[in-house]
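Predict the 3D structure for this chain.
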Amino acid sequence: MKLFSVLALILTLFACSEEVVTFKTDKERYSYLLGVEIAKPFISQAPFTKMDKAQMIEGFENPVKEEELKKYYRDLELLLGQDGQSFNEKYKEQGSFAVGKINRERFDHYFEELDASSLIASEFVKKGFADGLNKKDAEALKGQDRKKIMAGFEALMNAKYQKITAGYKAEGDAFMAANSKKEGVITTPSGLQYIVLQAGKGPKPGLESRVKMSYIGMNTDGSIFDQSPEGQGVSFGLNEVIAGWTEGVQLMSVGTKLRLFVPQELGYAGNPPQGSNIKPFAPLIFEMELLEIEK
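Done. Predicted structure below.
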């Protein structure tokens, strides 16, 4: 698990004080250093450096209600534009406040999902973030081994991650086992499962083929994580996709519609796409139609 690649998405801002922080426990040390690391984009990357820090502090101060998030995302888009690279001074205040709110939600959600909130001393995260923004962390961490501090934290987080993902894998395995017994489900030697919704005619694609598909990708709870544009297909080579698709599409003639059940080992296993709503080791479900075998 690449901890910092995940945590880099959590952009938060916290109040600062003039006192130099002191530490009594390892928990306080790594919480502080975590805040310092999270602060880096705000002192090094445009357009974040232009934001109203006081408004971000206020936004981050309290937890966010789920029904409020859409408004804050709209405010952020007004500030940064759809590309995330613009900066409209007119919306600086409300957009900066929205950044605080959105990233408070991201921060809370990440640690809650891994059942790891108890590992964090939030006041030290806040102090580390503030000191990082003001470049005061060097003084607070003088004589401290930053790599050693974070290695200890990563070990704790990895233990949490392994426990959570083991649960996800067990849930996925149970789903696939139960699904294999349902009427109409066919299971291949690899463990791939499918139901034929509509049979097509003609030749089937091979491993080196390029095809056009329409599809909807779903988690086992029915939530959608990906789909082709409405009324359109998506072209790809069968050697460019997950193993479950490579195998499954070769079972189809043009016009065939399948419901494909992909076990985790033929999908993303423990490394789902970053930012997706796919859990590690989760099975994937696809409603898919082969539109064309391209030449």
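Strands lie at 186-187, 193-198, 210-218, 224-227, 234-237, 257-262, 284-294.
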